[in-house]
């Protein structure tokens, strides 16, 4: 199944972080966090909530490294916590990188860590009320990405561009973004190149040479 970005990702967010989920949670939305756990962590928290106050949290995902390590899942409504659901297992390793994915489904959240299913959490409040994500605790985040399954954008006839060609990349590069280049190599070609640039600097230089 193909996934497509629903909003630009949050890149290298400073922890603690709170940000808007554009359009709120929807069935099929997948939120992916990549980062690294601190070498001597205590706790990590990822909250899917309504607004920035933290009084209404639909899903509180809370890995705790004490007592051998376990994960608490809970919901807070009107400032009051509900009964905890605990999984007596720690899927994260101290000082190590991780990928944490939350998949929103009609009846529950499904949580995957490093591409392995970890836990599911049934909705206690309607998920469509969630419009904010917050992350705190002993970790560094590289990005938070938002994707949903769907039909790719409609393809249109590709225009021909004059070479050499320069253009900007809207919103820059971020995880899951791709660029497709279609063309024809000239019969007498010796070489061509494609540069991904930042001002006068070249981050990536692709240079096929036929000679």
From TrEMBL:
Domain of life: Eukaryota
Keywords, in A-Z order: Lectin
An example Gene Ontology molecular-function term: carbohydrate binding
Domain (Galectin): residue spans on this chain: 17-147
Name of the protein this chain belongs to: Galectin
Organism annotation: Rattus norvegicus (Rat)
């Amino acid at each position: 199944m193909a996934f497509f970005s629903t909003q630009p990702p949050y890149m290298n967010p400073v922890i603690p972080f709170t940000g808007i989920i554009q359009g709120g949670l929807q069935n099929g939305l997948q939120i992916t966090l990549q980062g690294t756990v601190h070498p001597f962590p205590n706790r990590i928290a990822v909250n899917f909530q309504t607004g920035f106050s933290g009084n209404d949290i639909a899903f509180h995902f809370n890995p705790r490294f004490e007592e051998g390590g376990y994960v608490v899942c809970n919901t807070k409504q009107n400032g009051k916590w509900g009964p905890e659901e605990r999984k007596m297992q720690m899927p994260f390793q101290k000082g190590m990188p991780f990928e944490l994915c939350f998949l929103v489904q009609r009846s529950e959240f499904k949580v995957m860590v490093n591409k392995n299913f970890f836990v599911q959490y049934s909705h206690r409040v309607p998920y469509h009320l969630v419009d904010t994500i917050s992350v705190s605790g002993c970790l560094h985040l590289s990005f938070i990405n938002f994707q949903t399954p769907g039909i790719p954008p409609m393809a249109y006839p590709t225009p021909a561009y004059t070479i050499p060609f320069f253009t900007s990349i809207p919103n820059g590069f971020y995880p899951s973004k791709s660029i497709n280049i279609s063309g024809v190599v000239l019969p007498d070609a010796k070489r061509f190149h494609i540069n991904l640039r930042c001002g006068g600097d070249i981050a990536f230089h692709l240079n096929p040479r036929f000679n």
